[in-house]
Amino acid sequence: MSRKVVNAPRLQGLSRLRVRPKKEKQAIPCSQEMAALLGCWQNNGGNTNSSQCLKVAASLENCMKSQHGKQKSENTINYHLARLGKLL
Questions:
Q1: Could you list the residue ranges forming a coiled coil in this record (predicted)?
Q2: Which of 11, 29, 35, 76 is 20 to 30 A from 47, comparing alpha carbons?
């Protein structure tokens, strides 16, 4: 039995492509408000309907409403690899 050796195709033009380092992670929006609400619930025995936590819950809700729609989806390296895979 003879085995055929198949040479892998040489990728041309990929020498100039570089993977960029990841950007610094930004602070998670509304994390302080969420932590404050969870702390309030913990201090009140897990009662989520506590009147003391309504102000904190309202501030979290306002923060979440203001953040809605600001998220920008970034293309990942997997997206670009899949896109380049079609060219190979």
A1: none
A2: 29
Q: How many domains does the chain have?
A: 1
Which residue carries 């809700």 as its tokens?
61
Q: What is the pLDDT, as a whole number, of residue 56? A: 92
Reduced 3-state DSSP string for 11-61: CCCCCCCCCCCCCCCCCCCCHHHHHHHHHHHHHCCCCCCCHHHHHHHHHHH
Structural domain boundaries, residue 53: 28-66
CA 17 to CA 14: how far, in whole Å? 5
pTM score, whole prediction = 0.50
Residue 84 domain-assigned?
Answer: no
